[in-house]
Amino acid sequence: MSSQVKNVSEFKLQRILDHNQRLREQLDLPRVRVSQASSTLIKYVQSTKDYLVPSVWGPAGPADPFVTKGGISCGGCVIS
């Protein structure tokens, strides 16, 4: 067997072994059922106020981090 063919075969074997190792690592990752993940997401969305959707949460209060300080706003951006 020539050295070039041997090198190619070794390279292919190394790629397969690396891929196999990555698959084993993914297999060891903890899994969460879809029903549990979706219920957790629903609870989070229902309990966390989103100040950018005032039609759902009402007008923003003083705790709104998106309110401009001092009441002065530029009113948008200018593209020239």
From TrEMBL:
The keyword Transport does not apply. Belongs to the G protein gamma family. It is a peripheral membrane protein. GO terms for molecular function: G-protein beta-subunit binding. Pfam families: G-gamma. GO terms for cellular component: heterotrimeric G-protein complex. G proteins are composed of 3 units, alpha, beta and gamma. Residues 4-80 form the G protein gamma domain. One of its GO terms (biological process) is G protein-coupled receptor signaling pathway. Keywords: Lipoprotein, Membrane, Methylation, Palmitate, Prenylation, Transducer. It comes from the Eukaryota. It is found in: Membrane. This is Guanine nucleotide-binding protein subunit gamma. Transmembrane segments: none annotated.
